[in-house]
């Protein structure tokens, strides 16, 4: 039995995505904006990289049948790179070239007509990894028992963010440059990133609001049909219900 009759915005990524359902997070902000129009599904997986993401997305996407394609996924947001960009000695690290190939594979699962998951109605937005505040994250790692070594760098994460933009251009999908937006919001000072993150790696509500605003700009400019003001409620408002012949009016509509 289907758990939802609404179309879906699917958020797919690592812990930055997983935590975005917290108060003030990207997922929470989207859910509030699209209430009764679209269901926002958070499928964030803490610690995952793009190598491990591919078999997960294959399972999340419904295989097309002779009658239909992937049902209901209107927007797929792919947000990886924070773990891929750890130093090479870290087991989560994925080399830059493979990272790019993996991102392309994730996109092509949906865009390639030969893919069993092909869904031409699904729009895709890639999000770059956010800048890591090594001062804040390093202090967090040092506070662990036993203390842990810093396994990330600001410059390396930026390199992976730039690669996401290259993949987006190659694959013809939109890219939200979270690295640059957050860096500018911090006044381009690493220490100021603490205003946007609760630990130096994961965003707080202020950080997610920066990302949300950038996503809404992309939707307005590139996918206006997906803006919440362009969508109708899937089910009519209660004032429009016919108290006598209510059942006929209470049928699902296309948002």
Automatic annotation (TrEMBL):
Residues 11-210 form the SGNH hydrolase-type esterase domain. Pfam families: Lipase_GDSL_2 (PF13472). SUPFAM superfamilies: SGNH hydrolase. Coiled coil: none annotated. This is SGNH hydrolase-type esterase domain-containing protein. Gene3D superfamilies: SGNH hydrolase. InterPro entries: Iah1-like, SGNH_hydro, SGNH_hydro_sf.
């Amino acid at each position: 039995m289907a758990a939802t009759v609404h179309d879906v915005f699917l958020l797919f990524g690592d812990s930055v995505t997983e935590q975005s359902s917290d108060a003030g997070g990207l997922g929470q902000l989207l859910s509030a904006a699209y209430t009764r129009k679209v269901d926002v599904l958070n499928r964030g997986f803490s610690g995952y990289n793009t190598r491990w993401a591919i078999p997960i997305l294959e399972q999340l996407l419904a295989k097309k049948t002779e009658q239909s394609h992937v049902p209901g996924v209107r927007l797929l947001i792919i947000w990886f790179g924070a773990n891929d960009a750890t130093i090479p000695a870290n087991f989560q690290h994925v080399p830059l070239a493979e990272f790019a190939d993996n991102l392309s594979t994730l996109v092509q699962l949906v865009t390639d007509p030969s893919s069993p998951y092909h869904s031409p109605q699904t729009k895709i937005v890639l999000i770059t990894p956010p800048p890591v505040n090594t001062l804040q994250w390093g202090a967090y790692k040092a506070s662990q028992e036993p203390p842990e070594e810093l396994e990330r760098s600001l410059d390396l994460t930026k390199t992976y963010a730039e690669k996401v933009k290259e993949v987006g251009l190659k694959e013809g999908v939109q890219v939200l440059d979270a690295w640059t937006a957050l860096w500018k919001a911090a006044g381009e000072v690493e220490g100021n990133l603490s205003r946007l993150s609760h630990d130096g790696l994961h965003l707080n509500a202020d950080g997610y609001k920066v990302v949300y605003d950038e996503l809404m700009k992309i939707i307005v400019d590139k996918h206006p049909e997906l803006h919440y003001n362009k969508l109708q409620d899937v089910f009519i408002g209660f004032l429009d219900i016919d108290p006598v012949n209510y059942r006929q009016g209470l049928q699902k509509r296309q948002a």
